[in-house]
Amino acid sequence: MSESPTPEAGTAPVDPLTLETFQPHCDSVFRAPITPPPEAEPDAPSALELTLIEASPYDLAPRAVDADEAPARQSFALLFRGPKTPTLLQQTVTLEHDALGTLLLFLVPLGPDKDGHMEYEAVFT
Known about the structure:
1 helix, 3% helix
């Protein structure tokens, strides 16, 4: 499950998160803070950079909607590309973005792309 971003000082939270929230930010970098292992080099990065490469509708099987029920938001998926290593596990990850602030997203590693970069997906239903 993905959550709303935490607002930065002086900014309003982006809520609800929609496909339109992310589409303008394709090809931009999101940073996932990481703790380098003790044996890592002193200049090891403190954040993993993930590039949003796609924000697209995610088709789900239609469900019956009660007449009194508010229409559900459009389901969508985000596809990120990161370095081959380190690899994030399937988990909720804190991502920082210059325009969107801090977000908590459940990322699923999809595996390496044809160039060896790791791909991750977040689905919003």
